[in-house]
Amino acid sequence: MRDVAKLAGVSHQTVSRVINDHPNVRTETRERVLAAMRSLNYRRNLAARTLATRESRTLGIIGFETTLFGPESMLYGIESAARAAGYLVSVATVRELAHHPVLEAVDRLAQHDVDGIIAIAPKPAVTTALTHAPAGLACVAVGGSGSGVEPFPTVRVDNVTGARLATQHLLDLGHATVHHAAGPPDWPEAQARVDGWRETLYAAGAVVPAISPGWWDAAAGYEQGRRLAADPSVTAIFAANDRIALGVLRALHESGRRVPDDVSVVGFDDMPDSGYFMPPLTTVHQDFAEMGRRALALLLHHMARADGADPPPNVLVAPDLVLRASTAPRFD
Amino acid sequence: MRDVAKLAGVSHQTVSRVINDHPNVRTETRERVLAAMRSLNYRRNLAARTLATRESRTLGIIGFETTLFGPESMLYGIESAARAAGYLVSVATVRELAHHPVLEAVDRLAQHDVDGIIAIAPKPAVTTALTHAPAGLACVAVGGSGSGVEPFPTVRVDNVTGARLATQHLLDLGHATVHHAAGPPDWPEAQARVDGWRETLYAAGAVVPAISPGWWDAAAGYEQGRRLAADPSVTAIFAANDRIALGVLRALHESGRRVPDDVSVVGFDDMPDSGYFMPPLTTVHQDFAEMGRRALALLLHHMARADGADPPPNVLVAPDLVLRASTAPRFD
DNA sequence: TTCGTGAGTGTTACCGTTCTCAACGTGATC
DNA sequence: GATCACGTTGAGAACGGTAACACTCACGAA
User: Fold this and answer.
1) Where does the HTH lacI-type domain lie (chains A, B) (predicted)?
2) How far is A118 from chain B (nearest CA, A)?
3) Shortest CB distance from A93 goes to which of B79, B95, B112?
4) CATH number of A2-44
């Protein structure tokens, strides 16, 4: 910077003003400085800037160290939006969604002076850990099923509505009731899907079948599917996500139950290839990239008014049903 | 830091020595400093450290802004290894695998003083762009099918061997020849799989069927599958990846060709749920997380000996065949 | 004429580290 | 007993920016 100043015949401060688009610089001077910067191929040193301003133009993301579809796709939504806003994105992953590992991740990001944090927070442990983040560090939680009283903004998909959509769709097709291949019971999102499903059945006066705990992958779905396939009265299944649905589909196939002729199946997520399952899966679509963008917008807004006393907004993203070929009417 | 020094009754320099594990500090002094640090809850300011040392303890990753399975999983391998080595990971994604966007990403990372870059480089444009990175910035490319003369280390899976494994497996089962549902022709990895496939057929004296250009997803696989299903002589198909295989599977099913009874199918990647396709997919497994770790190790090594005149290592990871239920013997 | 005002610019201090080098024991060596 | 090496410590100057403030000048109002 000193060299640029010398070459342009101005003080380093004027150079600083130019790079920061300060208004009070004569056009002619600005041009001279810009020319000097170009000819010296000058790039501002962000570390020095960070040191002086305590602002790094870097955002932190806390993710879960497992290849779950949702979180992955959100990363890209966040990153591209962050780039547009002039921020770089750093990621810290946690091996386990527990208090301590998350705190550690926050600490690591804080040491690197991130200006704000977006946490993929599917379990409450993450959210509570986040409340212990250093004061003044803006946080946004995305995912999970918040209590509504978080001290920071959240973005979530409306899982209850999504589950309701799926269940009602099956009911409308004439199924007496709908069985559920659930996710892990200690994940609020899985629980919210159970709730939406149960409520809908209850409202329709349908029997509410028992559920058993699962996980998010096809292996778990397969187990659930075997259990359900063993029961000849099962004609409709709502799976907690598409991967589970894949396992269910296979279990049904193995026991000779045709989909959708004998049993209808609905998933959740609308993963890229679920339209090519056998049969193509009817599912509840959620736009993860969009959620990432929303989270980022919220974070930037939160950072801008750090002392904002207004209650933190809780964005609820509406999912919608994608009709494909895994569901069919039932006439009994 | 000044406060810590004052509390411990030493100079700031001694505090610095303590945090950097400098040997020449009396044990008693060190203890006193550590105690002071603890009681003041001191954290070193990394921005200041970066400014002084030109070392940020941050690594950059250049990724492709699309949810392809491979790159995703690598990120986690890289991140957790980086964390263990005391580095934070920043990501810069590119919307398009072309020269200019990649250079822009490099620039963005360089501005933030990353100590090194790992680029997910499935296409040569990324690699060549990388050669224009600022001198002294260590780079590692992972993926693609390098020319072998890159000025920096690379990590790649041995696609040719993988394809050979798949093709030979089908040949060994008694199939007269093997058809290929190819990926995008301008991706070296897809091309290498074509090469391995073709070589194997050639070596076995089998007919080499024509291929048509595709993409990496199930939709493209479905198209390929329809084309292949129309030809009654097709009894074995090697798909360039698992998602393509999924589409192929469905196309075959739709045209009444049973898998594996009528047609055998092999995939590539071993995605998490491919064991639950219908039927469970025999595929070529590659360990993306491990590749990420290897890439990181290479990068750290490369950074340590920045002036290393020794030729950059090109790590080739061996894939292996996972046998499941989508292939069967053929007796003609 | 005098003064205030605001645009344009420069001066100096400061952000929190590490680096360089000098200084101060202390014990071993001659 | 002087010298020397070495372990231990401290003082001051970087590192490359930004913030705060002072200064100059031109212009319009009193």
Assistant:
1) 1-53
2) 14
3) B79
4) 1.10.260.40
Average pLDDT over residues B211-225: 97
pLDDT in tens, A73-114: 888 889 999 999 999 999 999 988 899 999 999 999 999 999
Question: What is the b/e burial string over B272-287, where b = at least 16 CB atoms within 10 angstroms of the residue's CB?
Answer: bbbbbbbbbbbbbbbb
Nucleotide nearest to B12 (CA to C1'): D10
Give the pLDDT band of residue B69 (cuts 50, 70, 90).
confident
Q: Is there a contact between A112 and B88 if contact means CB atoms under 8 Å apart?
A: yes
Q: Yes or no: is domain A57-156+288-317 CATH 2.40.340.10?
A: no
Taken in order B29, B30, B36, B39, the sign of the CA dihedral is negative
Length B52 CA → D25 C1' (Å): 40
What CA–CA distance (Å, rounded) separates A270 from A283? 6
Which sequence spans correspond to the domains of chain B?
A: 2-44, 56-156+288-316, 159-286
Segment holding B78, helix H or strand E: helix B69-84
Residues 6+ apart with CB under 8 A from B111: A43, A44, A46
Q: Residue A131's CB: how many other CB atoms inside 10 A?
A: 11
| Strand C footprint nucleotides (protein C-beta < 7 Å) | 7-12, 14-20
Q: Which fold has domain A159-286?
A: Rossmann fold (3.40.50)
A125-179 pLDDT, tens digit per residue, is 888 899 888 888 999 999 887 666 678 899 999 999 999 999 999 999 999 999 9
pTM check: above 0.90: yes
A92 → closest Cβ in B88, B95, B108: B88
Q: In sequence order, what E strands does B121-206 have? A: 138-142, 154-157, 179-181
What CATH number was assigned to the domain covering residues B56-156+288-316?
A: 3.40.50.2300
- Output DSSP code: residue B309: -
Number of residues in chain A: 332
Tell me if B116 sits within 8 A of B303, measured CB to CB.
yes
Contact indicator for B21, B86 with CB cutoff of 8 Å: no
Tokens of B80: 């957790």
Q: What residue of B is the nearest CA neighbor of A44?
A: B111
Secondary structure element (H or E) that encloses residue B39, with its range: helix B27-40
Which of A47, A73, A243 lies nearest to residue B56, judging by beta carbons?
Answer: A47
Classified as helix, coil or strand, A293 is helix
CA distance B25 to B244: 61
Question: Cα(B120)–Cα(B127) distance, rounded to whole angstroms?
Answer: 9
